[in-house]
Amino acid sequence: MVTKNKHTGSSFDAFLEEEGVRDDVEAVALKRVLIWHLEQQMQAQRVTKTALAARLGTSRTQLGRLLDPENASVQLDTMARAARAVGLRLKLSVEAAPAKPRRALKSAA
């Protein structure tokens, strides 16, 4: 007997939702995008991490936490200040979540 993969045909978002990790995965992904933009600007401007920490009035250690993609618990104001320090603006948007697909009822036949 061939077993069907329960995720075949479902979206990656649906899979993450079923696994209960969607919010965490999205937070890390968003932070990675922010870090990438910050690092690109830092490189373009030849700003070191030490210099950026000084611009932010923080320690190199604190900046390291901000630039750590696994640490998703950074406050929005900190991210916005870091973006401004390299000439960027952090924009946040909210949109309606896509409707969850309804599961077909299995017949008792």
Outline the biggest β-sheet: none
Strand content: under 5%
Please state the structural category: mainly alpha
Kindly state the percentage of residues in helix: 40-55%
**Rg on CA atoms, Å:** 20 Å
| Element order: H for helix, E for strand | HHHHH
**How many runs of DSSP E, i.e. beta strands?**
0
Mean pLDDT: 82
Number of helices: 5
Distance between the termini: 18 Å
Protein architecture, described:
- The protein has 109 residues and is mainly alpha-helical.
- It has five helices and no strands.
- The radius of gyration is 20 Å and the shape is elongated.
- The two termini are 18 Å apart.
- 7% of the residues are buried.
Features:
single chain, 109 residues, mainly alpha, 0% strand, 52% helix, elongated
Question: Layout of helices and strands, plus pairs?
Answer:
Blueprint: H1 12-19, H2 22-45, H3 49-56, H4 60-66, H5 76-85
At a glance:
The chain is 52% helix and 0% strand.
